[in-house]
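Fig. S4 source data, part A: sequence.
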Amino acid sequence: MDIGLSGFIKKLPLVSLPVIENLQISPGAFVLTVERISDFLPGQVVALSTDDKIAPRLYSICSAPDNEYLQVLFSLKPDGELTPLLARLKPGDTLRVSAPFGAFLGDDRPAWWIAAGTGVAPYRAMMLAGLAHNKKLIHGGRFANQFYFQDEFLDCLGESYIRCCSQETGDGLFSGRLTQWLREQVLPSEISFFLCGSVEMVVETRDILISKGVDIDNIMSEVYF
């Protein structure tokens, strides 16, 4: 995380909210639910912390904008500072939450959504907001249990939901990284491409898209640190 962004996050005002649910949906992956106290746009993020001593981190909202609750998806990093504390939260515990913000916003225009791992979170919010009718989702994961919300995406998107699995094989899975899948495609040039994941994934994917004729102005990215 760059120093400027880190300083900005530390200055965000946070409010204390009770945890409603902390559901483990896959080994090491959780959906954390709190009350929604302000409106948000699909694709926006919130800063989270457990107390004033822990620096907040940003997480994409993965719930519908009209839901009374706000949900985030996170993966446990055993050597991390915050996620082990988040993973231990129980209903009734307190979570510190900022107001939603951010410009990685979905809309009604045709687009490809590209995600690695928990980077799929903002696309669930966009899907639940009714923005998936002209979208294709390419989701990368190392293992078959890392395609979070896959039943929802399959039900909504059907064949326009592509799962790229680099370490396992299985029915309906592309065997390889999502960047490999992209290299094998003829890409539409007049639509938007949304990228959400690690710095390495975003940079590599952006380079592939540009090499295939996609205008850089049509590429939007959200980096997970």
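Fig. S4 source data, part B ends here. The two ends are 6 Å apart (CA to CA).
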